Amino acid sequence: MQTIHIIILSLLLLAVGYTIIRAIKTTKALSMYNFFVDNTAGCCESLGFTGCSVICYAVNDIEQIENLLHTEYDRYEILAVIDSRLYPDIFYSIVKQYGLIRVNTIVSDELSNTHIRALYRSRQRRFRRLVLLDEAYTSPYNSLDCATLVASYEYIIPLNASMRLREHAIEYASILISENRERALVAIHSSADDECYIIKREYIISHDGFSATLFHDVPSTQILSTPTPLIYTINNEELRRRFRNNMCAVTFLILLFEMIWADGLTAVATLLSALLIYLIVKYYNVVANDRFCPEWAMLCYFRHIRRIFYGRKFLV
Amino acid sequence: MHRRKIIIYSQHLLSAELVAAIIGYANEDIIQCSSIEQTEELCRKIDADLVIILTSSPLLGGRNIIRQLRGSGHRPEIYVISWRHSEQAVLSLLECGIDQYMTFPICMGRLKAKATLSNNNLTRES
Amino acid sequence: MIILYTYIFIILVAILVTVIMTQRTQNSRRITTDKATRRRVFYIRQVVNLLQDESRIPMNIIARTRSERIALCEAIHIVRSHTYGTDSSPLNQTIRDNGLERLLFQRIRYSTGLRRAHWLTLSSCITLGEKSIHKLERLSNSRNHAIRIASVISLIASDPQMAIQRISALRYRLSPLDISRIISLLRRGIIPIAYEPLLQSNNYNLQMLGIAIVRNFGIDIADKRLHDIISSCNDKAIVREAILTLSSLGRPLGRAKIRYRMSNMSISERKSFCRYLATEGYSVQALRTLFSEKEMHYAEALIKSYKRDLVCRQYT
Lengths: 316, 126, 316
Description:
Chain A has helices spanning 2-39, 62-69, 88-97, 140-150, 169-179, 201-206, 237-261, 264-287, 301-310; strands at residues 52-57, 76-82, 100-103, 116-122, 130-135, 155-159, 163-165, 187-190, 196-200, 223-226, 231-233. By secondary structure, chain A is of the alpha/beta class. Chain B contains six helices and six strands. β6 of chain B pairs parallel with β1 (83-84) of chain C.
């Protein structure tokens, strides 16, 4: 019995300790983010010629393009990938709204299996940062590959249809990149509110494009992990509700196990730990005033445990 | 002297207050807005004479802000003041149809003189 | 042990609940934030009136409490960081009368990390005495990057004549963001720096600053100096920066010195440079002298993707 108590207590302490550390780290990172964007206004024009290409695939709402174009950073472009035959409405509404015209397609042998039907750029100077790709859809990874071929800048940020950039995210990402230029980094990973990666274009090409095993052989020293949130996800209420239900179910099962094999006091300790973890997450949301951060960003133990056994995966 | 209606749009209250203080509350009616929708609605309601936008992002996002602000037949002057210095940014904004583009850091005397010059022109026209 | 663990967790839960409820009440009422903002707004108006006042009758801005003095510091920082060209000597009396220098350095002394960097940033907008400058010199060797650079900026702003000496004496390399922040002081007219001596210097920081000045202010006539750097400098980062600056100015790149330097770049660096030149609007002809025939296929395809062929080609 004593051994079970020790094991359970250790795991509970570990879980609570990890959550506290994560909340503190993310709050500090957010403070640093706010400090930089408040105090360095006007200092972020093309930092050391650092450029970012944001790739958004499966675009289903023109509001996402508007959100992405709101960035004031100069060396930045948006590559929207849509299959015009599968989604003609959204495709042609983007073409119309931004005055896009079809231009010559890039022919390159850098990546295989890319099916770009057409490339569109805007006639208006103010939308020169927007590029629309008409791609024969096969898989999300292929869409990302097509956009990577067309990308002009060194760093790629892949986003799906439900992701949006936080205010000044690109400026902060450029600061991170320019300050770590001397390190041989392959990617920067923002673990705060969702799996957001800033990947070096050269690495994607050398790996023959995007795939789930993109980071399989990369040592952890070549991926800079930052707790700073750069993106947020919309329409995730369903996911949040499911996450909360799952957490409640897991806690209940653990309590049941303890009632049977341990004792009531251990179950109370577990319940208190669960409550404490929940309150720490709430504390972060309230103190950092970060309404976008979902609970699972704080409780990513399972993702980290999975990473130890299965390696880092790039999932879309 | 004609009291002009000036709308200042900025997501940062203190920057908007700074610009308002430079232009001077004494001779103009200055209203601050924190969202672009609010600016458009107010511009239509009060027939603003001058709209100052303290960021370039709404003009580069895809919405035709200029048309919305000038849609009701009344043509307010539109000034944009932002931190962007690159030539492409400046040309893009001028092509949008704005009347004046200034960069931060601004010269207080110059901003006040431009606001006064516009007011004098307006008085002469009326 | 379990009982002890349970008691500790009950206490922690109670503390967290109290803190969260207090913070939530504060957030919803927003009393504290609104009061601070109103104070700052009040002082911004007073400072602007003081600086614009042409009557030469000395105006006195009075801040009685500590929070009012902090608001006054922040107002002065906002006004001075967003404007240039005004004589700020009328502010010196206000700064002396309200003891702002002493207040700021007290806050700097008793804070750490980002808070300290924030107070240091505010101190860059007020005139400082000898004692304060000595304190800043100590802080400019801090291990925290944000504190280091904020104190360097304050030192440069308070003693512009010594700016070059201070930058050259730095024991670390300035990052692109640090250089941008120094450029922002230049835009405010605080430091009178000529770019030529900087480009001719052997010091990394001074050379990078000189190149950044050329780029930011579009100084076309500096291309000869940039060519000299490209041909004679041994530091790869400086050479890269000089070549990219030349291209951002739209200058011709066909000289032997540049071709030689580019031949020493890796294939991925050359491709990245090729993409950069395409975005800058260089023509195919301009690039023929720089790239091999194989690379020119890629360059041609890239440049053509910014255009649209209106005439159909006839294949013979």
